[in-house]
Model the fold of this input.
Amino acid sequence: MKVYKNYFPDKGCDVIVGTANHEYKLGTNITYFSLPAAAAKKLKRHHKPNKVACTLQWYEVGDTMGKHIDNIVRSERKSSMSILLTDGFEGGDLMIDGVRANLEKGDAVQFDASAEHWVTEVTKGTRVALAVWGVNED
Done:
């Protein structure tokens, strides 16, 4: 697990969150949103030589994500990353192999797609993160 402090600036986080189309929310996932070009370029650099796939994960009070392993769910996923886009919430801790990622707004954590991870229950506010995967489509 590698943490990147201030991976995205606050304004960039706010822009991404502001583009979320809640009409297409499925559980905690929103697939219709926009990434600024600079953000997309940065993500591609961190996941080379793989392609990048991503979704917004939008958690309200009571929401959680159960334990899972990304490349068991989808074998083409080679690397995983989570970028925290909001602050002011409580709970909603990202746990990777039992260790709290300890992220602040704009921070990213990159980890192996075979790592078991989950998000604890949000108890106050709204937690939004960008989930990113390096995908090998060969």
In short: The longest strand covers residues 51-59. Residues 37-46 form the longest helix (10 residues).
